[in-house]
Specification:
heterodimer, A: 601 residues, alpha+beta, 9-stranded mixed sheet, 16% helix, 30% strand, B: 242 residues, 0% strand, elongated
C-alpha cells in the first residue's frame, strides 16, 4: 500500500475536530482504550471483544459460498419467517432452520449469481435484489454474454418447500435492484408492493425496452428520479410486474449543508452540457434503501444526498413530506424508525462498505448514524451523530450499515451491523445522546500487510446487518457465516427489560418493512418501566420499592384478587404523575399494569 | 493499527493555525509514512510545476463524449494479459489502473486546500474526498494485484490523461489560488474532475462484457454514486459562494 493512502490531510482533520465539537456531537470519539481496538486477525480464530451479549454460535457458510476474496461470495442481508432465516449472498442464498439456535441447519443452498442478493420473505415467496452486470436470467456463472440474458431487478422464488426453492420469475427493472422494500397493499392482503431502489443509471433501451435516462424528474418516461414499484399478486407471483414509478424526488435541488433547506440553484459556468448540468441541479435521482413503516403510513428514504420522509398511504402515489440534507453524509444509506414513529435513525454508508472508514482519522460525523425527530408537522429535525467509538484497523472495511429495533418497552434501542466494525446495540431514546449498550467485534480477517510485499484486495467481511428476531440477534457475517447472539442484562439493560423484549414474537420479519411492536400483558413489561424510573431517579427510592413489592404481591395473586391489586396500583400511580420527572414512563407503567389487570380472569 | 513516527510529523509544514496543542497529536495520528521510502508527492513535499501531467488542452473537463475522449487516453501502462475465459476484461483492468491515477490527482488537489486558506467548508469537503479516494486507491491496487495486473502507484497520474483531469496550467492556477478564489476554483475543477470519473464509469459499462466481475461492478457503482452526490454538493457550495 502506498504511503500516501495512509497520510491524511492534517489541517482539514483539525477543522473536522473543531466542527465535530458542534452541538450534534454527544460521544467520546474515538476511544483509545476501547476493547475493540487492535484485535487479533484471523478468519475463524480472530480475537473477539464482546460486552453485554454472548455469541451463541456461528453457522458457517455452505461450501458453495466458502471463499473470502473480494465480494463474489459474500453474504448480504437477512429475512426471517417462523424458525427460518433467509440469508442472501452475492452468489445465491441460504435457508437456515434456527429452531435450535445452537445448531442451525442449512435446509437449502441456492446457487444463483445475484449480486447483491438482499432478500425479503412474504409467505411462501422470497424476493431477491439483483443489480450486478454479471447476473444472468438463468443464474449461471460466467457472466452475461448476450445482453438479452442480463437479469437486473427482483427475482421471485417460491420457497413453500424450503428444501427446494423454485425460481418463479425474474422481474426486470431499468436500474436493477440494489435493495428493495415490501409494502403491504392498504386493503388487499393478497397483494403487496415492492419499492425497488436501483442505484445505477438506466439500462440501454436495446437491453430493456422503455428504459431511458433523462434530465426531467417529472417526465413519466424518464427511468431516473423514481423508485420502480412492482405489484405482486401473492397467489400469482408469475404476474408480478412494474406498475409505476414512485417519483419522490421531483422539486429537490442539490443538497444544502446541515440544517439548510433545499433550494434550486442554476447551472453556471463550468457545466459541460446543459442537460448534464441540469441533472446535477435536480438533486438525487434514486435511493439506496428505503424503510417502510406501514403501520404509520411512513417511509424513510435514504436517497444519495438526502434523507427523505414519505407518506405511503397510497403506495402507488407516495407523497414526499420532507427532505433533509447533511453534507457530512456521503450516501444516506438506510433508516430505522422508533416504534412510536417520532424518531428516525439514518445511516451513512460512506465509502460504500468496502473501505476501512472507522479508523482514528475518520470523523465521527462521516460514516456513522444520525438521529432525527419527526415533528407533529411531519418534518424532520436532525439531532445527533453516533459512530462506533473504536479505532478499527486499515484491514477492516467499516462504516455504518443495517440494523433494526430491539423491542424494549419504554426505550428506543436498535442493533446494528458495522461490517468489520462488528455489531452493536444503541439506545437512541434521547435523540441528542445516543449511546452504546452492548457490542460484539472480531479482529480483521486479514493481518496487516508485510512491509514491501504486494498486497491483494483483502477480505471484505463483517456484519452486513444485525437484527433482533424473536429473542435473539442474528448478524449476517459476510465472510464467516451467520452469527447468532444473545443480549445479556447489564448496567444499561435490566433483566426485566430483556425479558420484556423476548416476549415480542413475530411470524415474519423483513427489516426494511418495519413492523409495529406490541407487547403482551406481562409482568416484565411493567417492571421494565419501573426499572427505567429507577435508572432515571424519576421517583423517590422508597416509592419505587413500594411499587416493586406491590407488583410482586399482585403477581403472587390470582383472579379477581390480582385484578384488584393491579387496579389499586394503577390508581395510586395518578399521584406519581405530578411528582415524577418522567411522566411518560409513569404512564407506561400504569398502561402495562392496566393491561395486566384486563388480561386477568 | 498503523505505526506513526514523530519524524514524519516533524517534516510536515506548519502554519499559524496548527499551533494548537491538539495538532501534535493529530500529526502523530495522521501524518505518517516514514520508513516506507516512498516518494509519493503531496503538495507539501514537491512543487506542482515539476509534477505536472501531460498537457491535454482546455477540453480536459469539457464535453464528455466517449469518442472524443478515446483519443485522449494516454498512459505508459504495460499490456494486459488475461487468461482465456476470464470474467475480467482488458477494459476492466484499464479502468482500475486509470482510476487509480484519476483518484490520485483528486487527492493531490485536496491537499492543496491545506495551504490555500480555503474555507472550513471546502476543507471539510477536501478531507472527505481525500479519505474516500485514498481508501479506494488501496482497494483498486489490491484488486489489480489479485488479478496479477500492474498496479499503478499514487504518482502515476502524472503520466496519464483521462476525462476531467486537470491540465498542467489548471494545476498551477489552483496551486497559486488563495482564499475565496481557491474555494471557487477548487469546486469548479473538482466538479469537472468528478464528471470525468463518472464518464470513465459510463465508458467502462459501454465496453463489451466489462464491469461484470463483482468487485469492479460494486466499486464502479460506488464511485458513480458517491461522486454524483459530491457534484451536487459542490454546485450548491459554488452557488453559495457567489
Amino acid at each position: 500500500m502506498e504511503c500516501f493512502t495512509m497520510r491524511v490531510f492534517a489541517l482539514a482533520s483539525l477543522s473536522a475536530l473543531v466542527l465535530a465539537a458542534a452541538p450534534l456531537a454527544a460521544q467520546t470519539y474515538p476511544s483509545a482504550t476501547d476493547p475493540r481496538n487492535n484485535l487479533k486477525p484471523g478468519l475463524h480464530d480472530a480475537g473477539i471483544a464482546i460486552q453485554g451479549m454472548r455469541l451463541i454460535t456461528t453457522a458457517p457458510k455452505p461450501p458453495a459460498f466458502d471463499s473470502i476474496r473480494g465480494l463474489t461470495f459474500v453474504n448480504s442481508d437477512l429475512a426471517f419467517r417462523g424458525n427460518l432465516v433467509y440469508q442472501g449472498n452475492f452468489a445465491g442464498f441460504v435457508i437456515y432452520d434456527v429452531s435450535n439456535p445452537e445448531r442451525p441447519q442449512i435446509l437449502s443452498t441456492v446457487e444463483c449469481i445475484t449480486s447483491q442478493g438482499d432478500p425479503s420473505i412474504v409467505g411462501n415467496l422470497l424476493f431477491v435484489s439483483a443489480e450486478g452486470a454479471g447476473n444472468r436470467n438463468d443464474c449461471a456463472k460466467g457472466g452475461v454474454q448476450d445482453p438479452a440474458d442480463h437479469m437486473a431487478g427482483v427475482r421471485i422464488y417460491d420457497v413453500s418447500n424450503p428444501r427446494a426453492p423454485r425460481l418463479v420469475k425474474n422481474v426486470q427493472t431499468c436500474k436493477g435492484s440494489h435493495t428493495h422494500t415490501v409494502i403491504p397493499h392498504p386493503t388487499d392482503r393478497g397483494t403487496i408492493y415492492i419499492y425497488v431502489s436501483g442505484s445505477q443509471g438506466a439500462r440501454p433501451e436495446t437491453e430493456l425496452a422503455g428504459c431511458r435516462n433523462g434530465a426531467d424528474p417529472a417526465d413519466e418516461t424518464n427511468s431516473l428520479y423514481r423508485l420502480d414499484v412492482i405489484k405482486v399478486p401473492l397467489a400469482r407471483p408469475q404476474d408480478a410486474e412494474v406498475v409505476t414509478g414512485a417519483r419522490i424526488f421531483t422539486g429537490l435541488g442539490p443538497a444544502p449543508a446541515r440544517g439548510g433547506r433545499a433550494r434550486p440553484v442554476r447551472a453556471a459556468a463550468g457545466a459541460d452540457s446543459a442537460e448534464m448540468a441540469q441533472m446535477r441541479m435536480n438533486g438525487p435521482r434514486n435511493c439506496h434503501d428505503v424503510t417502510a413503516y406501514p403501520a404509520m403510513n411512513l417511509l424513510a428514504g435514504a436517497c444519495s444526498s438526502y434523507g427523505i420522509l414519505v407518506d405511503i398511504s397510497n403506495p402507488e402515489k407516495p407523497v414526499r413530506l420532507d427532505a433533509v440534507a447533511d453534507t457530512n453524509f456521503s450516501l444516506w444509506h438506510t433508516a430505522v424508525f422508533s416504534n412510536d414513529g417520532k424518531k428516525v435513525v439514518f445511516t451513512d454508508e460512506w465509502g460504500g462498505g468496502t473501505s476501512p472508514n472507522c479508523q482514528a482519522q475518520h470523523p465521527l460525523e462521516m460514516g456513522g448514524n444520525t438521529t432525527l425527530m419527526i415533528g407533529a408537522d411531519r418534518r424532520l429535525t436532525q439531532h445527533a451523530y453516533f459512530k462506533i467509538p473504536t479505532a478499527q484497523t486499515p484491514q477492516e472495511n467499516c462504516v455504518s450499515h443495517n440494523g433494526g429495533l430491539i423491542p424494549v418497552p419504554g426505550r428506543d434501542i436498535m442493533v446494528q451491523g458495522w461490517y468489520q466494525g462488528g455489531v452493536n446495540v444503541i439506545d437512541f431514546t434521547d435523540p441528542d445522546k445516543p449511546f452504546e449498550i452492548a457490542f460484539f467485534d472480531r479482529g480483521p480477517v486479514d493481518a496487516a500487510p508485510v512491509e514491501g510485499q504486494a498486497r491483494g484486495r483483502g477480505a471484505i467481511a463483517g456484519s452486513w446487518g444485525a437484527y433482533w428476531y424473536n429473542g435473539l440477534i442474528y448478524s449476517a457475517e459476510m465472510a464467516r457465516g451467520l452469527d447468532i447472539l444473545e443480549l445479556l442484562p447489564s448496567e444499561h439493560l435490566s433483566a426485566n427489560e430483556l425479558a420484556a423484549a423476548k416476549l415480542v414474537m413475530m411470524e415474519e420479519y423483513n427489516p426494511q418493512s418495519q413492523p409495529k411492536l406490541e407487547w403482551p400483558a406481562a409482568f416484565p413489561v411493567a417492571r421494565s418501566f419501573l426499572d427505567q424510573l429507577a435508572r432515571g431517579n424519576a421517583l423517590p427510592a422508597a416509592r419505587l420499592a413500594e411499587l416493586a413489592s406491590a407488583i410482586d404481591a399482585a403477581e403472587r395473586m390470582t383472579g379477581t384478587a390480582r385484578r384488584g391489586a393491579l387496579t389499586n396500583i394503577v390508581t395510586s400511580l395518578r399521584r406519581d404523575l405530578e411528582g415524577s420527572s418522567d411522566a411518560a414512563r409513569v404512564r407506561g407503567l400504569a398502561d402495562a399494569l392496566r393491561g395486566l389487570a384486563m388480561a386477568t380472569n | 493499527m498503523m505505526h506513526f513516527s514523530q519524524d514524519d510529523a516533524d517534516r510536515r509544514p506548519r502554519r499559524a493555525r496548527t499551533a494548537l496543542l491538539a495538532v501534535t497529536a493529530l500529526l502523530l495520528l495522521l501524518g505518517a509514512c516514514a520508513g516506507r521510502g516512498s516518494a509519493i508527492a503531496t503538495p507539501a513535499a514537491s512543487t506542482t510545476a515539476a509534477g505536472a501531467p501531460p498537457s491535454q488542452g482546455e477540453d480536459a473537463h469539457a464535453g464528455h463524449d466517449a469518442d472524443a475522449h478515446a483519443g485522449h487516453v494516454m498512459h505508459d501502462l504495460p499490456p494486459v494479459t488475461l487468461p482465456a475465459g476470464s470474467l475480467v476484461t482488458e477494459a476492466d483492468v484499464r479502468f482500475m489502473q486509470m482510476m487509480i491515477g484519476h483518484h490520485a490527482q483528486a487527492v493531490y488537489m485536496t491537499r492543496l486546500a491545506e495551504h490555500a486558506g480555503a474555507s472550513d467548508r471546502v476543507l471539510k469537503l477536501a478531507q472527505k474526498i481525500d479519505l474516500s479516494q485514498a481508501g479506494e486507491i488501496a482497494l483498486m491496487q489490491g484488486w489489480l494485484v489479485d488479478y496479477g495486473q500492474h498496479a499503478p502507484d499514487t504518482d502515476s497520474w502524472r503520466r496519464m490523461s483521462m476525462p476531467g483531469m486537470l491540465t498542467a496550467a489548471q494545476l498551477e492556477q489552483l496551486s497559486a489560488a488563495r482564499g475565496r478564489d481557491f474555494d471557487r476554483l477548487f469546486l469548479r475543477l473538482m466538479i469537472a474532475h468528478h464528471e470525468g470519473a463518472i464518464q470513465m464509469v459510463a465508458d467502462l459499462l459501454k465496453s463489451p462484457r466489462a464491469g461484470q466481475e463483482v468487485d469492479i461492478n460494486v466499486l464502479a457503482n460506488e464511485i458513480e454514486a458517491a461522486q454524483l452526490a459530491e457534484i451536487e454538493l459542490m454546485w450548491q457550495m459554488l452557488a453559495e459562494l457567489r
